[in-house]
Specification:
This protein is α/β, with parallel strands linked by helices. It has helices at 32-45, 60-70, 79-103, 114-124, 129-139, 155-165, 177-193, 207-222; strands at residues 21-25, 50-54, 107-111, 147-152, 198-202. The protein has one domain (31-222): P-loop containing nucleotide triphosphate hydrolases (Rossmann fold), CATH 3.40.50.300. The protein has a five-stranded parallel beta sheet, with helices on both faces. It binds adenosine-5'-diphosphate and magnesium ion.
């Protein structure tokens, strides 16, 4: 089973250097999609060849699985079934979209990745963290993002931003406030446990202010001049 593109071990000139994989995480309405777009524009402006994508989804099969996850009744899946669907979609997304792009030397910016499964199905819906970890090892292997931006905002603010955005709410947006509070704590916990991979970004300011914080994190962590 293939688990991820090779690291930089190739002979010079043989193939392009593997691109970087950046994930944008956080609860609903924190500004992930907005900031993914702004970051992509900034990176493209420096001449970096990049792809933006999202989870659940990001490949044709994964987008079909997405519909099962975002439509329908809040309680339609138990937490383990839901996590399995997320990891099935994630593996399809990696195999079809992310790994080939990285292998070709492109950078990939993903609007959500595996931390969302640990936050939503683990901290939010009560699935054991070790179970999520096992599924990760099975489907993703030892591949991981080079940098994860965790956008942080009080759950109430995120929900009110998300409510202003759209009238029809998807499944996760219909889950209650205490669920969304657990998500926030979950994401902060993940960042505390993996400080080398994760940076917490205060997402309470304007779009431009948050973008400035993200650019600073990329300079510091990945050495990109933005
Ligand atoms: N910094 C910000 N301040 C106020 N509103 C924002 C900010 N960033 C994004 N928004 C708005 O809040 C809503 C949710 O943002 P979005 O990027 O879709 O969040 P997410 O993808 O995390 O759910 C959108 O209507 C967006 O235009
Ligand atoms: Mg979004």
């Amino acid at each position: 089973m293939s688990n991820g593109p090779g690291r930089r071990k190739r002979k010079q000139g043989a193939q392009p250097t593997r691109g970087r994989f950046i994930t944008v995480e956080g609860g609903d309405g924190v500004g992930k999609s907005t900031q993914t777009r702004l970051l992509a524009e900034a990176l493209a402006g420096t001449g970096i060849d990049l792809l933006t994508t999202r989870e659940p989804g990001g490949a044709p099969g994964a987008e079909e699985i997405r519909k099962l996850l975002v439509d329908g009744a809040v309680g339609r899946w138990d937490a383990l079934t839901e996590a399995l669907l997320h990891f099935a979609a994630r593996r399809d997304h990696l195999v079809r979209t992310v790994w080939p792009a990285l292998e070709a030397g492109r950078w990939v910016v993903a609007d959500r990745f595996a931390d969302s499964t640990l936050a939503y199905q683990g901290y939010g819906q009560g699935l054991e963290g070790a179970t999520v970890e096992t599924l990760y090892r099975l489907t993703v292997g030892d591949f991981a993002p080079d940098l994860t931006l965790i956008l942080d905002l009080p759950a109430e603010v995120g929900r009110s931003r998300a409510a202003d955005r759209s009238a029809g709410k998807h499944r996760y947006e219909r889950m209650d406030l205490s669920f969304h509070r657990r998500l926030r704590e979950g994401f902060l916990d993940i960042a505390r446990r993996e400080p080398l991979r994760c940076v917490v970004i205060d997402a309470s300011g304007t779009e431009a202010e948050t973008h400035t914080l993200i650019c600073a994190a990329l300079r510091e962590r990945l050495g990109v001049e933005l």
